[in-house]
């Protein structure tokens, strides 16, 4: 068996999840995995952060929203739509899929995740508004 890098292995696992679940494009799963990794890394390197820490769903969803802005700028909403991600409930579903398939571990997540909260959080229609750009343009 030829050597495979970690990125290739993760890519294959995510492709399997995307194919089995059939709702979102594989890139959406990759975005969430790498976004969560970035959030955990940022919390780990913060000397003020109490360890061990837990991430609640509001923090997770806000982070993914800002991470989308950081990665794609004002086109983030269009990228998410292409991936069939229309708002925070879709990100929540992707996180559930990743947990169900063992791709991410829930040891960093609070147990208070709920779809009803995610539904009320946000959509991506404001990515191109001047208010969002002015608030987060320097992220």
Structure description:
With 139 residues, the protein is mostly helical. It has one domain. It is built from 7 helices and no strands. The longest helix is centred in the N-terminal third of the chain and has 20 residues. It is globular and about 40 Å long. The termini are far apart. The mean pLDDT is 79.
State the distance separating the first and last CA atoms. 42 Å
- As a percent range, the share of helical residues equals 55-70%
Element pattern in H and E: HHHHHHH
Number of domains: 1
* Unreliable stretches: none
| Rg measurement, Å | 15 Å
What percent strand?
under 5%
Q: Count every beta strand, where a strand is a DSSP E run of 2 or more residues.
A: 0
The structural class is mainly alpha
3D shape: globular
Give the biggest beta sheet: none
Give the averaged pLDDT, no decimals.
79
- Number of distinct helices: 7
SSE inventory with pairings:
Layout: H1 6-21, H2 26-45, H3 57-72, H4 76-82, H5 88-100, H6 115-121, H7 130-136
Condensed summary:
The protein has 139 residues and is mostly helical. It is built from seven helices and no strands. It has one domain (6-136).
What brief labels describe this structure?
139 residues; mainly alpha; 7 helices; 0% strand
